[in-house]
Amino acid sequence: MARVFKACSVEGCNRDAHEPGSGRGCCSRHYQRLRKNGDPLKSKINREQSGQPCSVDGCDKRSGYHGFCQAHYKRWLKYGHPEVVSDTFRRRVRWVEAHVAYDGDDCLKWPFSVGDNGRGIVQVDGRQMTAPRFMCLLAHGGPPSPEHEAAHNCGKGHEGCINPQHLRWDTSAGNHADKVEHGTIIRGEAVNTAKLNEDQVREIRRIGSSMERRDIAAMFDVSYWTIWEIQTRRSWAWLI
Ligand SMILES: [Zn+2]
Ligand SMILES: [Zn+2]
Ligand SMILES: [Zn+2]
């Protein structure tokens, strides 16, 4: 018995609803859209145009992929972060990681470019911080409180010392040996641009995976990315 041609159930589509890959009364193309997007008329492009803005600051594309536009979603899948970290920063981060166990007594000089304060800058998880702060994090663990800064025992921070044995966490009040390292990493309410307070951060963690991160973000009027960082303790790590 010859197979009978049956038109796709999408109005105006004359493709065969029995062709390979078809299903639920739709031709293959419309069936794929139905499966992927829940609607045979919704293509990915439509999906992106109708979504919320992409969570990446400064990106004006619409999101449709876990809060990111397609390009940023792909980068997020590939690098674990929607913004590609440049080779420069990757080299610097690798250099710090390679010297965490350095045990020489002399100052260990930062071999890359430095800012006006003599300190190098690294970028980790999309945030910039001074190289001494990053070294202090790796060598001695996170700061005991948001007020603690990476300080030099040798007083040679301005000369680019990054010897892990010369670094310690200290509060600016008790830090006589050296100027404080001003990391720009978000440290909760200590940063006056922080939109959230401690109670809200606790609430976001309590909600956990019971809500979509995108919806939590909308609820607190912050980006998807902010929620992700809080829940994975990449920010507000010190808050219990
Ligand atoms: Zn069709
Ligand atoms: Zn984007
Ligand atoms: Zn030193």
What secondary-structure arrangement, pairings included, does this model have?
Blueprint: H1 28-37, H2 44-50, H3 70-79, H4 87-98, E1 121-124, E2 127-130, H5 131-140, E3 148-152, E4 167-171, H6 198-207, H7 213-220, H8 224-231
Antiparallel strand pairs: 1-2, 3-4
One zinc ion (ZN) is lined by residues 107, 152, 154, 156, 161, 163, 166.
Q: Mind telling me the C-alpha Rg?
A: 25 Å
Total number of helices? 8
Helix content: 25-40%
> Averaged pLDDT, please?
77
Order of helices and strands: HHHHEEHEEHHH
Query: Strand order within the widest sheet?
Result: 1-2
- Measured by DSSP, the beta-strand proportion falls in 5-15%
Question: Which descriptor suits the 3D outline?
Answer: elongated
Count of domain modules:
4
Small molecules held by this entry: zinc ion
Ends apart, CA distance between termini: 70 Å
Largest sheet: 2 strands, antiparallel
Query: What structural class should be given to the helix and strand makeup?
Result: mainly alpha
- What is the number of beta strands? 4
The low-pLDDT segments are 173-193
Index terms:
240 residues, mainly alpha, 4 domains, two-stranded antiparallel sheet, two-stranded antiparallel ribbon, 4 strands, 31% helix, 8% strand, binds zinc ion
